[in-house]
Specification:
Length: 126
């Protein structure tokens, strides 16, 4: 019995060792969630552009306009649930909650304008 279970553990160890390096993108420690930048390049850049600078305003992350809200929470909701009737599909079945939140922060950061809720400049003297 012992020899048998040892044999199976060895097989499993080999499978895990063989699988982990190919599952993780190059340069990334095994077992970590895929970094937002990688996920964005793979899954989002095709529509939203490498810098979030898509030509279509609803798809542009850099113009200071957030159709569905500019908070990380609102952005995460769009990524998670998609926008019905548009090419923006729901990603909640493909990405973990943490990956979605990281992505939301990542795309939020493409917006360097000051005209949005989160980074509204304070009035001098107030
Ligand atoms: C097939 C093309 C496509 C892909 C791929 C795609 N999107 Fe979208 N996305 C859209 C479209 C189209 C809209 C605009 C929806 C609308 O009109 O409200 C949108 C809207 C959004 C918005 C809302 C922007 C705003 O102004 O409120 C966010 C955030 C977003 N996408 C994030 C992502 C992320 C993150 C990914 C990758 C995980 C992704 N999208 C992948 C097409 C895409």
């Amino acid at each position: 019995m012992h020899a048998r279970s040892g044999f199976f553990s060895a097989i499993i160890a080999v499978i895990v060792l063989a699988w982990v390096p190919t599952a993780a993108p190059a340069g990334q420690a095994p077992g970590q969630a895929t970094p937002a930048a990688e996920t964005y390049k793979l899954r989002c850049a095709v529509c939203h552009g490498p810098d979030g600078n898509a030509q279509v305003p609803e798809m542009n992350f850099a113009d200071g306009q957030w159709k569905h809200g500019s908070s990380v929470k609102e952005i995460a909701k769009v990524i998670s649930e998609g926008v019905p009737g548009t090419a923006m599909v729901a990603f909640k079945s493909q990405l973990s909650e943490k990956e979605i939140l990281d992505l939301a922060r990542y795309v939020r950061a493409f917006d360097k304008t000051k005209g949005n809720a989160k980074t509204r400049p304070r009035k001098p003297g107030s």
